[in-house]
Batch of 3 targets.
Target 1
Amino acid sequence: MIEWGASGVTLGIETSCDETAAAVVIGGGDIRSSVVASQVDVHATFGGVVPELASRAHLEVLTVVVQRALEEAGLTFQAPEVPAIDAVAATVGPGLVGSLLVGVSEAKALALAWGLPFVGVNHLEGHLFAALLDHRDLPWPLVVLLVSGGHTVLISMEGPGRYRQLGQTLDDAAGEAFDKVARFLGLGYPGGPAIEAAAASGDPRAFAFPRAMLDEGLDLSFSGLKTAVVHAVRRSPEASNADVAASFQQAVVDVLVAKALRGAEDVGAGGLCLAGGVAANEFLRASLSAACEELRLPVYVPSLAMCTDNAAMVAAAGWFQLRQRGPSPLDTGAQPNLRLPLLP
Ligand code: KG4
Ligand code: ZN
């Protein structure tokens, strides 16, 4: 847990993609409630997230999710009373614009009605905070491998709010590759957990899939790997999904671990940290941990709930941001292509 003095209570709201989430966090690190309503059932029949359906589902459930997060945190109140919180934070981007609009509108309206500051949070910064929520005394710089459905970036974090980008994917995000390959294999949505489950009984050496750019710098590329999987399956239609999934997962993890270790070495990092939905992958967690142990490099792996989208990370990042950069204006809009704020 990062300590940053005063212990304000923040309500966080997250609606950037296909999870509707609200959470109450004290002082940027003490999670009092974290409610996540998944839309998996809404999108499963389509094999992926349908943006229009995602926004509608957020609109239907968000207020109830907020109500439950307040109740679970013991913050019941009777209007016109105001709940005992100090700020309302919501993800403003990056993400699906229609989904973001729902959370941003609700958060700004609550902030106005309750006379509280509103904080617009960067979803990627939220993931970085989620990774750090469970830990104290972090060694800076910390190299963070942020691997989600929309992003794959390698960050050198010099402290909360101080980020340098070391590398990024030049095409697909790692999670996107998992989702596309799962869809191609008919394993369903969301793809990451489906591939991981199929891979458990497969042979990771069955197919020699490419490890793109393994020896070149810190950028990554996954679109060639996805194409290689498609070609291999067309060439060997008898191949088992388990073998294909295991070989694919091994190729992704080999590249991610190699790049993370090289990034850590380049900046003389005090430790390595995982963040984002793909960080929920047990094989990635175990592989990175083993590699770091061998090098005696401290490794920080967040709890599973803090890897995938949630609002505790938004509240934590929001509280930090409020103290460092102040509140966001009430005319803040959704910013679907928002980038992580980097050091000059
Ligand atoms: O961070 P996240 O919840 O949402 C975004 O911000 O994108 O990440 C979702 C991504 C999806 O692509 C999903 O397939 C992937 O994380 N994912 C996994 C696993 N669990 C979720 N990928 C690999 N293995 C998993 N166990
Ligand atoms: Zn995310």
Target 2
Amino acid sequence: MRILVTNDDGITSRGIQALTAAMARLGEVIVVAPDRQQSAVGHALTVASPLRAVRMEREHTSIAYAINGTPADCVKLGISTLLPYRPDIVVSGINHGSNTSVNAIYSGTVSAATEGTLMGIPSMAVSLTTFDASADMSLAAEVAYDVAARLLDLKLPAGTLLNVNVPTVDRSQYRGVKVTRQGHNAWKDGYDVRKDPQGHPYYWLKGEFLTLTELEDGDDFAVQQGWTAITPIHYELTNHAELDRLKGLFQP
Ligand code: MN
């Protein structure tokens, strides 16, 4: 099996190193990842400036490129142009930080996997629910291995990917895997207003993650209880439940 590994925290992050080592037990690992931190860039593509691909030597990989672009750029450029063959699966992560609830929309980690799905390749994103840079990645790496090993057999429908969130718990507290839905929690946004040396204000996003609606079958609730949350998600944006109602209003 050939596994394309990418992320949004950059090619030097601890998360992608742990993921690469885990995926090497499954097959041949190819890394195409951003050359710098690209968290929360969503599904952005680079269109107004050129992309550069720097070939690198990375442990456990047959081919590795660092790209001066977004996670979605990495998957698109890698599969369409850089790689000599199509990967069998795309695995994105291990992200430093939760991609539950609304985070999945902003996430570059999830968008990289979404891009894999758009290109017709079974894909998954893996996140560890802490921003602690020194956090133990071993449980998340094991979960990534277990899910990736089954990804082809799952026969996900076209356009559907797996969003996997692993709780930050001791192994003694870890409870296993739950299949969940995307939660309904969100950030209470705010900005730190600071002054630059010339006295001009600048703004730095800060926020507080709020539990708005506790969905007992949701991803946030599962990881809070010590479970890995696996949520099948898709990029189809149509609200099917609204179709008929709006047809009645616009096409009476
Ligand atoms: Mn990230």
Target 3
Amino acid sequence: MAKLKVGILISGRGSNMAALIGASQAADYPAEIACVVSNKADAPGLKIASDAGVATAVVSHRGHADRETFDRALSAELERRGVELVVLAGFMRIFSPWFPVHWANRVINIHPSLLPSFKGLNVQRQALDAGVRLSGCTVHLVIPDLDAGPIIAQAAVPVLADDTDDTLSARILRQEHRLYPLVVRWFAEGRIAIDDGRIEVRDVPPGATLLFSPEP
Ligand code: GRF
């Protein structure tokens, strides 16, 4: 069966991108990474991708009249590569409404909190300041509202008394690297059903859409 063509958008480090590329290297993984596109030419993830033999492109957000013009240029690049699913992995641009509408139900994001708690930036600090005992990450469909959109799956981790932004971030990131390849697999296997803004993941074991890792 043909593999699902995935386009990954990054702006920086690219560790989630690397996890997805790693997963896609298994012969039985049902998705392939058609391209990695960055809005920044100096994103470290670009080298990781090209070293792994994945096509890369830079579409700078600079020099466009407005957000939508940039979004259309980005979209044209993805379409040129035959992308069927757009995966945001540390992509630090806010879209115009045009992009998520154009790619409706075909663009996903990972956010390092248990949404709908702690949207936006400085997410770990928000969680520590709130005193939550549990945090984690969320994979969701992208809609015009920031860090909103139907939730597909989450991974939870404990928040420990002596956590800093960095230690909590690292604990969550390890789970991001498990969760994102799993969700992309479900997309490729046609398991994600979207009904009236709610998501059902079909034919997976009960509880498969919540990972929990109690280890520190
Ligand atoms: C991750 O924490 C992800 O949840 C957020 O941006 C960060 C990207 O990290 N959206 P990386 O570039 O994948 O290492």
